[in-house]
Design goal:
Elements (H helix, E strand, L loop, with lengths): L5 E5 L13 H10 L4 E8 L9 H10 L4 E8 L12 H7 L3 E4 L11 H17 L5 E2 L7 H7 L12 H14 L2 E5 L10 H16 L5 E4 L10 H11 L24
Parallel strand pairs: 1-2, 2-3, 3-4, 4-5, 5-6, 6-7
Helix pairs in contact: 4-6, 6-7
Length: about 260
């Protein structure tokens, strides 16, 4: 299957979460070397006061005049447990974001409780898919190692505790709402300590979701230049899942920059 060479989740140094090397010129150069055709810059927006920081991304893309198609998206997070997102339709239009990706980024627990942790994740996954502002649910069941180490939680290194019914429901809701599920080569596939076993279990989890018919995205979630190659791992998983090219989600609009932009 000839799946698109794309990466729909890339961070920059401008928002402070990626390494200083993740400048727009460096990202474009490495993605070109990797043979990417379409990429998306999707840096974080955890608070409204971060909005203006995204303007530097667009300015540097304009200066770089990329040879590949580049989309301008944004990664949203919940501002509190079950709280609002830091974006609405008006500010999305105002800042020119072409699409949004979103996912839960913490446990929201002070005491370790594996069942409650999974239940919170699932509830957020469903509500994210049901939010009309969101186009893509990112890295389901990814957990930052720093939070676990800080709180003394054991690592989340197995997908076995996640009920099959949760994967089925997520796939069904994603298909009904036309929300794509992210295949994340840089986070979702390497969570926890038992990487090989976890990756196998995670692909099995994605396969259950895939049976329900939703779209998927291919993503590196790169925070450093070396991490951009992880999009190929995500692409390989999409092939293992037997996804046809038409089930790989790409923005419906024309890219903000690149050969396929009609106004170039």
């Amino acid at each position: 299957m000839n799946l698109p060479k794309c990466d729909m989740h890339i961070h920059t140094e401008y928002l402070g979460c990626a390494k200083p090397e993740m400048t727009i010129p460096a990202i474009l150069s490495e993605c070109a070397r990797l043979g990417m055709d379409k990429i998306a810059i999707t840096d974080h927006l955890n608070r409204p006061d971060q909005l203006d920081m995204h303007k530097k991304i667009v300015a540097d893309l304009e200066d770089s005049r990329p040879d590949m198609d580049v989309y301008f998206g944004v990664e949203l997070n919940f501002m509190s447990k079950d709280g609002p997102l830091a974006l609405n339709e008006e500010t999305k239009r105002q800042y020119g974001f072409q699409f949004t990706i979103c996912g839960i980024h913490e446990t929201y627990l002070d005491q370790y409780d594996l069942k409650e942790m999974i239940d919170i994740q699932h509830r957020h996954h469903i509500s994210t898919c049901q939010d009309p502002l969101v186009d893509v649910l990112v890295h389901p069941y990814w957990f930052g190692r720093g939070e676990f180490e800080r709180k003394g939680f054991p690592p989340f290194d197995s997908m076995k505790p996640v009920p099959r019914s949760y994967a089925v429901e997520l796939g069904q809701v994603a298909a009904e709402t036309a929300t794509a599920i992210e295949i994340n080569g840089g986070a979702g596939l390497i969570n926890g300590e038992g990487r090989d076993e976890f990756a196998r279990e995670y692909v099995e989890y994605l396969a259950i979701i895939a049976e329900q018919g939703p779209m998927f995205t291919i993503a590196s979630d790169a925070h450093r230049v070396e991490g951009l190659k992880d999009a190929e791992d995500a692409r390989n998983v999409a092939q293992k899942l037997g996804l046809a090219p038409e089930r790989i989600w790409l923005p419906a609009c024309e890219p903000m920059f690149g050969p396929d932009r009609r106004s170039n």
